[in-house]
Write a structure and sequence with these properties.
By secondary structure, this protein is of the alpha/beta class. It is built from seven helices and 18 strands. The strands form three sheets. Strands 1, 2, 8, 9, 10, 11, 17 and 18 form an eight-stranded mixed β-sheet that branches. A hairpin with a 4-residue loop joins β13 and β14. The radius of gyration is 20 Å and the shape is globular. The structure holds flavin-adenine dinucleotide.
């Protein structure tokens, strides 16, 4: 029976990115995905690569900064490895802080420039609210995840799609593989990357929970109506190069319910029109909801567990697209016994025990 060095549970952006980083180190990998890779949170995401001190939890700042720096190379590698485009954009963000935002003067002088709205984004409704320009990038998470999936296949990562992992198998407290609804697979190491569902699998309690986000998609007319990401306290707008405009997003405790609610989508639509009145001509292309993997302290869970050979990379909450490159690098080091460049002690599963 075939065996692998590592089995990854979950083919979202986190599992796919780790599979690629492991293959680069010569490790054989099987990704076991219960549906089709990249159809859950990673499919629903906006793709803002927000690494700014204002909104990122302080404990996450080092990871966020490192991951944002890695993005151009990460995206380039995925594009080369898959032959697909991921729409990494670096036009930046126009950021309207809330009254309650703590605007650190050092941050403002290093990262943000106060702006005159008329110049960078003329279709924004006039406002007296202060705005800042942030040098953040954005990416299309659907394209990114598809590219990661194809790049992984091209690099020799194996996939089992369509069956959920139901158990992680142990013999004498050592990992031996996983059981799915139809079969079992052998490996001495297993990584739980099952996103919001991570807590449903395995020998240890992983305190992830689903945090629902609803989103709306419009077709801009003209296609480059907006060039920057716009972030306000009520709503954000993310333009794509093909003319789509994402309007997001709610943050809801609603269990594993992925239905959208017409009143909520209407509220997002109205908030977008207030911000950019010219969007009244924009066609509605669709709406959806996804489940972010939340944790009790809103920080990810990364690294080894008390069971030798069993690892976790989950709980990326609102930042999993941003944090994919650094998570992949750290996890590939940890799984192969190398010391990661960054201190991951604050993200250990043991902080919840
Ligand atoms: C509306 C919304 C907007 C967002 N915007 C942003 C943003 O702008 N920037 C950003 O950085 N992040 C954003 N996020 C967060 C980001 O999407 C997530 O943090 C990230 O996608 C998590 O990736 P993942 O691979 O851990 O989870 P997922 O993409 O959910 O993947 C987990 C996978 O595990 C599989 N799985 C589950 N159980 C099993 C099982 N038993 N067996 C096999 N497979 C299993 C699932 O089918 C799924 O494919 C947003 C999320 C939402 C919902």
């Amino acid at each position: 029976m075939k065996t692998w060095d590592v089995i990854i549970i979950g083919g979202g952006i986190i599992g796919l990115s780790i599979s690629l980083a492991l293959r680069k180190k010569g490790v054989s990998v099987l990704v076991v995905e219960r549906g089709e890779p990249g159809r859950e949170a990673s499919h629903a995401a906006g793709g803002m690569l927000v690494d700014c001190l204002i909104e990122t939890p302080a404990a996450l700042q080092e990871l966020a900064t490192a991951s944002a720096r890695m993005y151009p190379e990460f995206a380039h590698e995925l594009e080369l490895g898959s032959g697909m485009k991921v729409d990494l954009r670096d036009q930046g963000t126009i950021f309207f802080p809330s009254e309650h935002s703590h605007l650190d003067p050092t941050f403002l002088s290093d990262h943000a420039l106060p702006i005159s709205l008329a110049h960078p984004e003329p279709t924004l409704a006039p406002t007296d609210n202060p705005a800042f320009y942030l040098k953040e990038r954005s990416v299309d998470p659907r394209a990114l995840t598809q590219a990661a999936w194809h790049a992984a296949k091209n690099r020799g990562v194996d996939f089992s799609s369509g069956d959920a992992v139901t158990a992680i198998n142990l013999s004498d407290s050592q990992i031996t593989g996983v059981t799915t609804t139809k079969t079992s697979f052998l490996a001495e190491k297993v990584v739980n990357c099952a996103g919001a569902w991570s807590g449903q699998i395995g020998p240890h309690r992983i305190p992830t929970r689903p945090v629902k986000g609803q989103m709306l998609c419009l077709a801009m007319h003209p296609r480059d109506l907006l060039k920057h990401v716009i972030r306000t306290p009520n709503v954000y707008l993310i333009p794509r190069s093909d003319g789509r405009l994402l309007v997001g997003a709610t943050v809801e405790e609603a269990g594993f319910d992925k239905r959208t609610d017409p009143a909520t989508i209407l509220r997002l639509h109205k908030a977008a029109l207030e911000l950019v009145p010219q969007l009244r001509d924009a066609r509605i292309l669709g709406d959806w909801a996804g489940l972010r993997p939340g944790t009790p302290d809103a920080l990810p869970i990364l690294g080894a567990t008390p069971t030798p050979g069993y690892f976790v990379a989950t709980g990326h909450f609102r930042d999993g697209i941003l944090l994919a490159p650094i998570t992949a690098k750290i996890m590939a080091d940890v799984i192969t016994g190398a010391e990661p460049d960054l201190d991951i002690a604050p993200f250990s599963l043991s902080r919840f025990s």
